[in-house]
Structures are given as structure tokens and as C-alpha cells.
Amino acid sequence: MQHANFKLLDKISNKLTEKTIAVNGSDS
Questions:
Q1: What is the b/e burial string over 2-20, where b = at least 16 CB atoms within 10 angstroms of the residue's CB?
Q2: pLDDT at 14
């Protein structure tokens, strides 16, 4: 169960990172 939760967190953080990169990229 904990492993599945970690995978889910990893997916979410990856999406957040992509969003942040996209925002920063359009800003500069």
C-alpha cells in the first residue's frame, strides 16, 4: 500500500514540476 502511495505522489510531483517548468518557461 505504501509503495502505491509513493508512486502516486511521484506522479503528482512530476506533473507539478512540469507545470512549474511550463510557467517559468513562458515567464522568461
A1: eeeeeeeeeeeeeeeeeee
A2: 96
Residue tagged 517559468 (cell numbers): 24
- Grid coordinates representing 10 are 511521484
Question: Which ranges of 1-28 does DSSP label H, i.e. alpha helix?
Answer: 2-27
Residue 20 CA, distance from chain mean position: 8
CA distance 16 to 13: 5
Predicted confidence (pLDDT) per residue in 1-28, tens digit: 678 899 999 999 999 999 988 888 876 5
Could you tell me the pTM of the whole model? 0.57
